[in-house]
Amino acid sequence: MDFVSILGLTGMALDLVRAAPQLARLIRDKRSFGVSVDTSGTSCAVSLGWTTYGLVTDQIFVTLASGIMASFFLITTLVALRYGRSAREFQITPIWLEGLSASVLFFGKTGLGLMLSISALISNVPQIQVAYKEENLSGLSLETWLLTLAGGLIWGLYAILRHDLTIITSAFLQSVTSGIIIGLKLFKRSNNGISNQEFTPD
């Protein structure tokens, strides 16, 4: 097995597990503070797009990882809605689902590749907004976003070696947006810890 295949397998493994901590937290805590269903819903649509892209470009690792990820994101979205989030939060999800579908129908692989190259930015922006606006991020899984960051870095290296500009761009945006979300989570957790200490009676 060559190095590129090892990277593909590693990226696939990270994608298979990265949504699990968020889903587990939602099921365990039965609350969804700080979780964006617009991000999980859009990520489900994007994963379906990557599944198609993997098929048409003959990249089996991309196809397998993305197909399973779509299922994880769908379940995460439904559970988050069950435990407090609102369907009114869906703003980007329906637009991007329609955009991905139209790109395939009218422009084929090239159009899909262009849409997918910026999809990580589009899907993660709602989570950045929620993490920035809401003080309570207890429902947001730090582990999921650390795995997402690691996955972005691995897929970026894989794509560089495969000379796939679509995946390079997507992996870069995934890494940057994940890093921002991780920073906001740690910042809010640190501030909340300080606040709790300040108001803890002696």
Question: Can you walk me through this structure?
Answer:
This protein has 202 residues and is mainly α. The chain has one domain (3-198). It is 82% helix and 0% strand. It is built from eight helices and no strands. The chain has helices spanning 3-18, 20-29, 37-56, 60-82, 92-117, 119-133, 142-162, 165-198. Helix 1 (3-18) runs antiparallel to helix 7, helix 6 packs parallel to helix 8 and helix 7 (142-162) packs antiparallel against helix 8. The relative contact order is 0.16.
Which properties best describe this structure?
disordered C terminus, globular, mainly alpha
Summarize the structure.
The chain has helices spanning 3-18, 20-29, 37-56, 60-82, 92-117, 119-133, 142-162, 165-198. The chain is an all-alpha fold.
Question: How many domains is the backbone divided into?
Answer: 1
Strand content: under 5%
How do the SSEs run, as a string of H and E?
A: HHHHHHHH
Shape: globular
* Distance, first to last CA: 61 Å
SS summary, helix count: 8
Biggest β-sheet: count, sense, barrel?
none
| Average pLDDT over all residues | 91
- Structural classification: mainly alpha
Fraction of residues in helix = over 70%
Query: Are there runs of 5+ residues with pLDDT below 50, and where?
Result: 194-202
- How many beta-strand segments? 0
Write the layout of secondary structure elements.
Elements: H1 3-18, H2 20-29, H3 37-56, H4 60-82, H5 92-117, H6 119-133, H7 142-162, H8 165-198
